[in-house]
Amino acid sequence: MKKLFSLFVLVAGFCALVSRAQTAGGPDITVGVGRGDALSVRIRGDTALVALAQKAFSTHGRYVVYAPTASGANFDLTFTGVSGTQVRVDVNKGAAAVMSQTLGGTSQANALYRAADAAVRATSGLNGFFASRLAFISNRTGADEIYVGDLFLQNVEQVTNQRASVLTPRWSPDGSRLLYTSFKNKVPDIYQIDLVQKRWSTFVSFNGTNMGARFSPDGSRVVMVLSANDRGGAQPEVFVSTAQGRSPARLTRAASAKSSPCFSPDGSRVVFAMEPGPQLYVMPASGGAPSRIAGGFSSYCAEPDWSRASPNKIALTVRDGRNFQVGVWDLANGQGKIVSKVNGDAVEPCWLADGRHVVFTFRTAGSRKLGILDTETGKHTIISSIYSEKGSVWGP
Known about the structure:
Layout lengths: L1 H10 L17 E3 L7 E7 L1 H12 L4 E4 L8 E9 L2 E8 L2 E9 L3 H17 L8 E6 L6 E6 L5 E3 L7 E6 L5 E6 L6 E6 L4 E6 L5 E6 L5 E6 L10 E6 L6 E2 L7 E6 L5 E6 L4 E6 L6 E3 L7 E6 L6 E8 L2 E8 L4 E4 L6 E7 L5 E8 L2 E8 L5 E3 L6 E6 L2
Parallel strand pairs: 2-3, 2-4
Antiparallel strand pairs: 1-29, 4-5, 5-6, 7-8, 7-30, 8-9, 10-11, 11-12, 12-13, 14-15, 15-16, 16-17, 18-19, 19-20, 20-21, 22-23, 23-24, 24-25, 26-27, 27-28, 28-29
Helix pairs in contact: 2-3
């Protein structure tokens, strides 16, 4: 696995597995366990909106969805279309009205997801995540390309057409841009897509490896892995640049492969994976000595994602026996927990807005699909019916 990890760092794009794009939504396959604090909801209203809301709430580990004719639900949720871009949600607990609110969106489906998020906040106090946008990789056209859509892949748009291996699409904080790695020129360079103008441009293209770019939470900086000779030598190192990719400053100085850098929620620190193992390390974003975290958790710790909603939590991919699963490392108590138990591999976790659920890649022999995982209950839902992987989430 060490050799595979190093190979990923240096030539990952050539090792990307084939995937296909989601078209008309996922299969809504849910596996998991119940909890004593689960909330039951009965969903009513316009037929099309009810179907979308039921699918959304069925992915949430806190909720149990009752049939519209069933009795005994903790809450009744009614969704009514007001216009082509507005939906009203009414929440009742028995005979008592809890809330009534009209939400707008880019479409009626988007307005429904925003209304459902409002219902989550009203009934559980948690942030909602249903209105998130998803960027992911598939090869519907026969080559790896990046697509964006809603979280449930009802409306998907292809945003690259480079016919080259691509890796790790990552959102800007305002949701207007994506950074990603592409082998368009046969070597790994970092590109940027302006989703408003529908244009892509080269972000960083030094001699050597350029990959793993992510924005800081405030959008003012970008962290990435570079191995250009004029940037510090052929060994991949972690760098931080301006938001435009200028003036990259080297953070790490160690003769080991590094990957997957990610800022802390306040932008003051960076977490990344480094050999041997790999294992996870945290260091100041301004420079300094890296400190290992998650020691003893697993022999393989990679692909970290630092939760903005729960700043003490880092989701990561860990080895569990012969498979890989999603783990969560708690910085507050210095303990880790394997939170997925899929029959296959669960990799590449990306936090959703509530700090409880993640999007992940469900991997079996010859198959890649996206799923939503509740890190508290282990409940997971496969949201794509055909090949897709490496999901990255943006929330309004």
